[in-house]
From TrEMBL:
Chief location bin: membrane
Source organism per UniProt: Ohtaekwangia kribbensis
Transmembrane annotation, as ranges: none
PROSITE patterns cross-referenced by the UniProt entry: PROKAR_LIPOPROTEIN
Keyword Cytoplasm on entry: no
Protein name as it appears in the record: RagB/SusD family nutrient uptake outer membrane protein
Domain SusD-like N-terminal: from-to ranges: 89-222
Compartment list: Cell outer membrane
InterPro entries: SusD-like_N (IPR033985), SusD_RagB_dom (IPR012944), TPR-like_helical_dom_sf (IPR011990)
Membership in a protein family: Belongs to the SusD family.
Lineage: Bacteria, Pseudomonadati, Bacteroidota, Cytophagia, Cytophagales
Amino acid sequence: MKKVIYLLLTIALVACDDKLDISNPNRQTTSDFWQTESQAIAGCNAIYATLIIDGTYTRMTPALSDGRGDDVTGDSPWPDLVQVSNFTIPTTSGPVQWIWADYYRVIWRANQVLENTVSIDMDEALKNRILGQAHFLRGLSYFKLANFYKIVPLVLATPKTPEDYYPTTATEEELWNQIYADFQQAKDLLPASYSNVTGLDAGQIGRATQGAATGMLGKSYLYRKEWQKAADQFKELIDGGRYSLVANYRDNFTDANENNSESLFEVQFADPSQVGGTVMNWGGDPAANWKQASAQACTYSMDGRGYSDFLPTQWIYNEYKLERTKDDKSDPRLLATIASYEPDDNSTTVYGDAWPYAPDKIYPRKYTNDGKAGYANEYDLNSGINYRVLRYADILLMYAEALNELKQTTAAYPYIQQVRDRANLPDLATTKPGMTQDEMRDQIAHERALEFAIEGQRINDIIRWGWFYDANKLAMLKTHDADFNLWSPGNEYLPIPQTELDVNKKLSPNPAN
């Protein structure tokens, strides 16, 4: 059974006015909270708690990432989810605002931990681990904000003056340099695991580790085309031998084999039957009766089993069919990712019942409880499936990409093949030997599409590869997903929320505004 560390607590971090010496005995202030090891670890846990609310990983981070890729299309009565999928999302969209607000909530809590933990008299190793986690989670938050909005303010301290509440927008260079710095500091401070540490966090699963920080540092370098720096981080992980691909691809997206050898970092969710809770953890101040559940399963699940707000595109389904396995079967990632009627592959049921839809209908299966005993549908919003933020398969394919960009195309083959081997696909060096750098780029794009479909990765890949501004690639995207026909320059990003622009006059609009 997994250990869920996301204690749903609220720390009232408010300032006291000397002129009005009245305090609420039920809520602590910053001046009397940060005193002990247990309070420091509680403050750290409070950062993690903000990863399981609506704007982060409970629903909107997956939804507003997947919807914009060519592997997923909107299929919702909720206009925001369709509009984000076809790149017409307005600046007044609620989900766009929630993502912005909730990642800054993570940052706000991380900044409090970084500022206040350093002065606590406590075990130095535990202190370093807490600071390392705060750096990691702040770096992850800015990584997500940079990919959602392109340019955002850098807030690296809690507000001390009224002026501090109105930060200016950072440049892309400043933003990404801070992301590198946070992940590097996390890497320097975090342990490889918590199995051999002593202290309040001993043996706990789900906390950020040195491997997670190394992987995200490398991924950040890759996104900015710092190929050698990225390759160095990935090689360190590969040579370290701590991580490996799990045999069953589907194990990466259910609650049956979480925090496994392939996982570098995942957001911890839990069914209320494990940890309690009766009220959905959408946001606001956490309470004791909050669930720690994910809403992704219900949001993505098929008609009659969930909200069916998103569908796989026919293109990604067809992409899985391009190549047969060594024993002449369908790529096993197809049915782990997409629920479809495949009698030849013994897939004719959903949630244990006979396939009730037209034979050509397709739905998401990844991150749903389809196939789990006792689940007839997802409407109770009780899914405990962890969200995998970074997998070892990503490290392998990113390393191959970095090698190819460093003109070491031949050296990239074995790392791609490790991912293909799990899918039992033929040896790429035999089927496509001697690829040029450009050919390998296209091959890596194909491999990433199949490996990471419906994982919120595709839109980031499309943006960083420059496909929106390449006429041929954009034309290709339009054939993959008709939503791309409505794209206009700049709208590959989410707009800065209008409410933020209205309140903070020092905030700059981004290309989507």
